[in-house]
Amino acid sequence: MKRITILIADDEAEIADLVALHLQKEGYHTVKVLDGQSALHAVQTQAIDLAVLDIMMPGMDGYEVTRKIREQHHMPIIFLSAKTSDMDKITGLITGADDYMTKPFNPMELVARVNSQLRRSLQFNQAVPTQRTLLEKGGLVIMPEQHSVTLYGKPLELTPKEFDILYLLASHSKQVFSAESIFEQVWGEAYYEGGNTVMVHIRTLRKKLGEDLDKNKFIKTIWGVGYTFND
What are the φ/ψ torsions at residue 105 (nearest 5 degrees)? Predict the structure, then answer.
């Protein structure tokens, strides 16, 4: 069985040790670092399956680490931070994190979230080869094998969740998806309060596609129902 390695990046050694202790009890191998640059170096030099990142770290904060990781890697990322505002959480998700927990935290809840993210990641990776094909839609090219998108030949920098939402909509042109359906299919878990999360991701996705509120060429809102893709 493949050994699963989890990166823990936190400038408070006591917290990193606590997280590592609980994850090791679950059978995971852990790599602990105390700053952002070391976290990025670990991802570049080791096979990391999931990262637990603090945001406020010296040298390079968690947001910047995540942006650089997302340039080449798609492993799940969970932010574990003392920043507790809704805007902090939204920024974390937009940057490319898959989940966000605030401090103080319950270590067992963190373990549960790690298990959930790894489970979804495994299911996604197994499904991609047989379920996804290249899509070309009016200047938009979506390449699932490379997990990349170009618009009129220009590469777009999308987070994994933005990519999954775009592919879901584009591969089912004209079908209307509710926020609940998008959340359950992309995040792989039961819908509870994910409507705002979906809305935030749709908004940033539209911005990257160069769309405005008055004219949405690719993603169209069906008010009171959900979202659809214009072919």
Answer: -135, 160
CATH 3.60.20.30 correct for 5-128? no
Burial of 14 (0-12, 13-18, 19+ CB in 10 A): exposed
Q: Per-residue pLDDT averaged across 12-32, rounded?
A: 95
Distance CA(48)–CA(170), nearest Å, equals 30
The CA–CA distances, whole Å, from 147 to 1, 19, 62 equal 26, 30, 22
On whether the CB atoms of residues 199 and 214 are closer than 8 A, the answer is no
Stretch(es) of the chain classified as CATH 3.40.50.2300: 5-128
User: Token digits for 81?
Assistant: 């931070």
Its pTM stands at 0.64
What is the three-class DSSP state of 140?
Answer: strand
3-state SS of 41-53?
A: HHHHHCCCCEEEE
